[in-house]
Design a protein that fits this description.
This protein is mostly beta strands and about 50 residues long. The protein has one domain. The chain has one helix and three strands, in the order E-H-E-E. It has a three-stranded mixed beta sheet. A hairpin with a 4-residue loop joins strand 2 and strand 3.
C-alpha cells in the first residue's frame, strides 16, 4: 500500500509550515518521488512560499 507524503523540502519553506496539514488529500496530488519503502512524496497543492 502506497503512503503519500508531502515533499519535506517544500514544507520547510511553506508559509503554512506551522499548520497541521495531515488532513490534506495527498494521494490526489502530483507525485515527485517514489521511495523503495512505499512512500510517495508529492507536490502539495496548498504550498505557498514563505515571505522573506
Amino acid at each position: 500500500m502506497a503512503i503519500y507524503i508531502p515533499k519535506g523540502g517544500l514544507c520547510m519553506t511553506c508559509k503554512f509550515k506551522i499548520n497541521d496539514c495531515s488532513q490534506l488529500p495527498f494521494s490526489t496530488m502530483k507525485p515527485i518521488k517514489t521511495y523503495e519503502d512505499g512512500y510517495i512524496a508529492v507536490k502539495c497543492e496548498k504550498y505557498e512560499h514563505e515571505a522573506a
